Amino acid sequence: MVPWGAMRTSATLLLLALAACAPGCVERQLVIETDPPGAELFVDGREVGTTAEGAPVRVTFDAYGTRTVVARRRGHVPLRRTVTLDPPWWQLFPFDVFTDLLWLGTLRDEHRLELALTPRAAPDEPEALEARARHMGLHEEKRP
Question: Can you tell me the distance from the alpha carbon of 76 to that of 79, in angstroms, rounded to the nearest whole number?
Fold first, then answer.
């Protein structure tokens, strides 16, 4: 007969081996849409793609925290937004041990961000721009 201590040690080692091989997985994504579509997107200074009509850009991430998102499109004012990606309750300790290592499936954590770009103001007519420059030149001498 096998001693109780040896059986318990064997069972513990078996559970640890199964836990190490378990296919637990969490997919984390930041999904970004812009209005209008066609904007180049940068997350933390790294280009991640260009939005299209009905096709947002999906950025995977491993760690929660703060990200800086920049959207640029010709004819529009560039937009910079700081986004905080907070973990869901099941990604907080001690639940994350179970969801990251022991869960027998894939969990998805999706954070959505919608950015509205503002069109740039139309440039002044050449005559109006020249008149403004002359006006500023006349008043430049009066500055302290």
Answer: 9
Distant-in-sequence contacts of 75-78, Cβ < 8 A, 24+ apart: 75/119, 75/120, 76/36, 76/39, 76/117, 76/118, 76/119, 76/120, 77/117, 77/118, 77/119, 77/120
Q: Per-residue pLDDT tens for 11-38?
A: 676 555 555 555 568 899 999 999 999 9
Domains and CATH numbers, the chain: 28-92+114-139 (2.60.40.1120)
- pTM, rounded to two decimals: 0.69
